[in-house]
Design a protein that fits this description.
5-stranded parallel beta sheet, binds fructose -6-phosphate, 14 helices, globular, about 15% strand, 12 strands
């Protein structure tokens, strides 16, 4: 049941700290701070390419995984939504690997992509939340997310658990390939292991996000912007807001603003920016400043180091805990989910069962 929560989604949002902790401890030894992956169906040190595929939020988690694996392990990654990949017939290298991501393990398009990739000789690894699901059974290897049952149709804890597995995988691949030193591995696993505690802090202090939600609820259109590994989280923010509140939202790479979407900017379109401090901060901040100069109302998620610069032009700045840039996408995923939740509650939509949506899309 829902316990004391109004919706399953609210309950599931509050399960983030436990789910992230359980999922991370599955793949990281807290004592040694070393990644410990189960046997994989391919050798990450030798694999020529990994093809990622999934649908919806699971695809966006995979997109973050792509940034991580390319950055940390230097493995070429191709990725596409499963409904495209299955008909695209991409050239695939011999000995290549495929990585599929799915909460349910039953999504028709993802399953079709899995079968195609296997038939084409790729070694298939799946990240799924439901053990014994069709995808679990048909993959050469499975990494389980330990999110427990997710009842709310919009994915929340399963999404961040997918990110946790993909982060551990990227570090494990980096070690196998010699692109990540033991010291860096220990530093990044320590940063990951701190995420559950930060998630708990975020969930306790929701007032700023509620205040932001009250403004977003009045909008007809909303833009979400992010750069690097925060770009897929911007897309996820827009997807969540659309599906839960029925407000039109789009996510863009921050640097793409000036190539078209900036024409939409006026005081009626809130611009929600995911802009933690780190190597890309200045670039994103300058994109936001351009939007602000054209009358855009910037609402930024950042951290203590990023807040002062953004406060100069942003209407609202929500300060999240300070973390290593590597784990920032996991931490930023939680407030965008919370925002969509609060907006949906304010608009009175059916939070756990949005119109026209199904929890598992088992038809093409
Ligand atoms: C969005 C959402 C969907 C699913 C997608 C894939 O909140 O929940 O976009 O992520 O339908 O489902 P799974 O992960 O079961 O393959």
């Amino acid at each position: 049941g829902k316990g004391n929560y109004r919706h399953f989604m609210e309950k599931e949002l509050h399960e983030h700290p436990v789910v992230l902790g359980d999922t991370l401890r599955q793949h990281i030894d807290p004592a040694t701070r070393a990644v410990a992956l189960p046997p994989l169906p391919f050798d990450p040190a030798a694999v020529p390419k990994i093809t990622f595929s999934a649908c919806g939020s699971a695809y966006l988690a995979a997109q973050v995984g792509r940034y991580w694996i390319e950055q940390v392990a230097r493995i070429p990654v191709d990725s596409d939504v499963a409904s495209e990949l299955r008909y695209r017939d991409p050239p695939l290298p011999e000995g290549g690997a495929a990585l599929l991501v799915s909460q349910s393990g039953e999504t028709a398009d993802t399953l079709a992509a899995l079968r195609l990739l296997r038939k084409r000789g790729q070694h298939v690894l799946s990240v799924v939340n439901v053990a014994e699901s069709t995808m679990d059974r048909e993959s050469d290897g499975t990494l389980l997310t330990i999110a427990g049952p997710e009842i709310g149709v919009a994915s929340t804890k399963a999404f961040t658990a997918q990110l946790a597995v993909l982060a551990a995988l990227a570090l494990g691949f980096g070690r196998a390939r010699g692109t990540l030193s033991a010291a860096e591995e220990a530093r990044l696993t320590a940063a990951l292991l701190e995420v559950p505690g930060h998630a708990a802090t975020l969930l306790e202090g929701g007032e700023e996000i509620q205040a932001l939600a009250a403004e977003v609820a009045l909008a007809r259109d909303v833009l979400f912007l992010g750069r690097g590994s925060l770009y897929p989280i911007a897309l996820e923010g827009a997807l969540k807001l659309k599906e839960l509140s029925y407000i039109h939202a789009e996510g863009y790479a921050a640097g793409e603003m000036k190539h078209g979407p900036i024409a939409l900017i006026d005081q009626d379109v809130p611009v929600i920016a995911l802009c933690p401090s780190g190597p890309l901060f200045e670039k994103t901040a300058s994109n936001l400043q351009e939007a602000a100069a054209r009358g855009g109302r910037i609402m930024a998620f950042t951290d203590a180091a990023g807040a002062p610069a953004l406060r100069r032009f942003a209407e609202r700045v929500v300060t999240l805990p300070t973390v290593d840039p590597f784990v920032a996408p996991i931490l930023h995923a939680i407030p965008v989910q919370l925002l969509a939740y609060h907006v949906a509650v304010l608009k009175g939509t059916d939070v756990d069962q949005p119109r026209n949506l199904a929890k598992a899309v088992t038809v093409e």
